[in-house]
Amino acid sequence: QVQLVESGGGLVQAGGSLRLSCTASGRSFGSYSMGWFRQAPGMEREFVGCISGGSTAEFYEDSMKGRFTISRDNAKNTVFLQMNSLRTEDTAVYYCAAKASYILSTVVCGTMTWWDYWGQGTQVTVSS
Question: Phi first, then psi: what are they for 121, rounded to 5°?
Answer without folding.
Answer: 95, 155
